[in-house]
Amino acid sequence: MRTLGEARLVQICVGMLTVAGTSVAIKIVAVMKGLVLAQQFGVSADLDAFFIAYLLPSFLGDLLAGAIVVALVPLYIRTREQDGTIAAQTFIGNTLVVTTICSIAVAVLLWALLPTLIWMFGASFQKDQLLLASRLFLFLIPVLPLSVISAIFISVLTAQNRLALATLAPGISILVVTAAIYGFATEWGIYSLAVGTTLGLIVQTLVLAIILKGQDFQHRVSLRGLTGPIRSFSRQIVIVAVGGFIINFVDVIDQYSGGILGPGNLSVLNYGNKFAFAVLGPASLAVSTAFFPHMSELVSSRDFAAARRIIKTYSIAILGVTIPVTLLLVVWSPTIVMLLFERSAFTSYDTLQVTAVQRFFLLQIPLHVLGMLFVSLIWSLRVNWVFLLINPICLLLKIWLNPVLTAVYGVSGIGLATSITYGVSCLLLLIAATWLMRREEAHSTVVFEDLAS
Q1: How many CB atoms lie within 10 A of CB 48?
Q2: Contact assessment for residue 33 and residue 177, using Cβ atoms and an 8 Å cutoff
Q3: Cα–Cα distance measured from residue 273 to residue 275, given in angstroms and rounded to the nearest whole number
C-alpha cells in the first residue's frame, strides 16, 4: 500500500505530464507559425523592424499578464470561499475595469513616446526601417490591454481548476496570426504579421469570454467592491510585477544587443532562441504548475521534512532527464534548424548562423528547469521579496555578459550569456530556498515549544 508521500510524488508526476502535454501542443502550433514566418520573410530587415515594434507591447503585456495570474488566482479563490460567488464575480468585474483602464493609459503613453522608443531600440536601423517600425507599432499597441484582459479570464479558468482550457488559450492567437501570414503576406507583406498578432489576441479574448459566459460567469461591477479585495490585488500585483519586470528585462537587453550588432542579427537571434524556448516553456510550466499546490499544502501543514524529500527526489530526476536531453539537442541542432526553417528565403548560411545561437541557448535547460522547482517553493513560502534581491543580480550579470561575449562569439554570445545567467539564478534560488526552509522550520519549532510549555 502506497504511503502518503509516495502518492504525492505520483500526483506531482501526473500533473507535470498533463501540463507538459498541453503546453507541447501549444508549442507545436508555435513551431508551425515559425515555419510559415521563415518561409515568407526569412532573415530580413522588415522582420527586424517588426521585432523592434513588437518589443515593448509584448514585453509589458506578458509582464502584466503573468503578474495578474499569480496575484489574482489566490485572491479570487479566497473571496469566493469566504464571501460567496457573487462577491468573487464582483471582484473580477472590478479588476477587469481597473486593469483595463490602466493598461490603456500605459498604451497611450507608449504611443506618445513612440519616436524616442523606436530610435532607442533601432539605433543601427536605416531611416526607412525606423519608419516601418513606427507604422507597425501602431498596429501592435492594442496587444497590451488585450493581454491584460485575456490574463484575467485565464486566471478565472485557472481558479476553477480548468487548467487545460487556461493552458490552451494562447494557441488561439497563434493559429490566427499563422493564418494571417499564410493568407495575406503576399499582399500585405510584414503588415500581415502585425495585423494577425493583434487580431489573434482579439479572437483569443473573445473565445475566453464566451467560455466563461457559457459557465454562467457574470462580470459584476460595484464601487463598494473596490475597497476590499482590489486593494490586496493591487499590492500583490505590484510586488510580482516589479520582480517579473526586472528578470524579463533580460529579453529587452537581448533584443537591444542583437539590434546594435547590425542588420539581420536580430532575426538570427530570434530564430535561434525559438526552439530552446519551445522546450523550456512546457518543461518550466509543468514543474511550476505541478509543484506549487503540493508545496503550498506541505508548507501550510508545516511538514518541511516531506517538502525536502520531494525537492531532493525531483531535483535528481530533473537533472537526470534534462542533462542527456540537452546534450542530444545540442548535437542535433543543425538538423533541427534545417528542418524547421531552411526553405525559400531562409538559406543554408542562415542555418549555420542560427545553429550557433541555438546551441548556446539550449545549455540553460537543466538549471533553468531545476530553478523553477525552487521558485515554486518560494511562492509557497509566500516570500516573493526574495526575487527583488535575486532578479537584479541576474539582470546586472546579463547586462555585463552580453557585450563581453558578443565581442568574442558575435550574436551567439547572447545565447551563452543567457545560459550563464540562468545558471547563476538557479544557484541563488537554491541558496535562498534552503535558508528560508531552515528559517521556517526553526520558527515552527519555537512556536511548538512555546505551545507545549
Answers
A1: 30
A2: yes
A3: 6
Asked if residue 451 is part of any domain, the answer here is no
CA–CA separation, 217 and 219 (whole Å): 7
Same domain, 269 and 240: no
Same domain, 186 and 209: yes
Q: What domain range includes position 62?
A: 45-251
CA–CA dist 406, 392 (Å, integer): 21
Q: What's at 234, amino acid-wise?
A: S
Query: Looking only at Cα atoms, what is the longest distance across the chain?
Result: 80
Residue 422 in contact with residue 402, Cβ under 8 Å?
Answer: no
Is 218 found in the same domain as 316?
Answer: no
Residue 36 lies in a domain: no
Determine if the pTM surpasses 0.90: no
Number of independent structural domains in the chain: 2
Q: Are residues 415 and 436 in the same domain?
A: yes
Alpha-carbon dihedral sign for residues 26, 31, 36, 41: positive
* 88 shares its domain with 233: yes
Whole-angstrom Cα distance, residue 193 to residue 184?
9
CA distances in angstroms from 188 to 126, 194, 203, 267, listed in the order given = 21, 10, 20, 20
Residues 6+ apart with CB under 8 A from 392: 246
Instruction: Give the amino acid at 18.
Output: T
Q: What pLDDT, in 10s, does the model give residues 155-203?
A: 888 777 677 777 788 888 888 888 888 888 888 888 888 899 999 999 9
Contact 233, 96 (CB under 8 A): no
Q: Is residue 68 part of a domain?
A: yes
- How far is Cα 99 from Cα 162, in angstroms, rounded to an integer? 23
